[in-house]
Design goal:
Elements lengths: L1 H35 L6 E9 L2 E8 L8 E8 L2 E8 L4 H7 L9
Antiparallel strand pairs: 1-2, 2-3, 3-4
């Protein structure tokens, strides 16, 4: 009984992390594909936060990772992540129009 409870406890902790990691790969692929046509320099992509069917990815030039930050917001629909907006800054009105919750907004 104790072993099965321990196994269930470990699964409860590990399963969300495994699902999140697989989602991160799909999110990054969608973000990279979106920028392939417009990026002129090599960039680094970082999934910062995923909340339900929305995700925020930070992008920086690979050569200068602490400068020129921009963000890509993606939405998952029918199992596929697609970019809904990408730029360096957003106004409160733009966040509202895009349906981005406060927890995903850039402080």
């Amino acid at each position: 009984m104790k072993k099965s409870l321990l196994i269930l406890g470990l699964l409860a902790v590990a399963l969300p992390r495994l699902v999140a990691e697989s989602e991160n790969a799909a999110i990054l692929a969608a973000a990279e594909n979106y920028l392939k046509t417009s990026a002129t320099t090599e960039v680094k992509y970082i999934v910062e936060r995923v909340e339900g069917d929305l995700a925020r990815v930070r992008i920086n030039p690979a050569a200068k990772p602490n400068s020129s930050t921009a963000w890509i917001f993606l939405r998952k629909k029918d199992g596929k992540w697609t970019v809904i907006s990408a730029r360096a800054s957003f106004t409160a009105k733009e966040y509202d129009e895009l349906g981005i919750p406060k927890s995903l907004r850039i402080p």
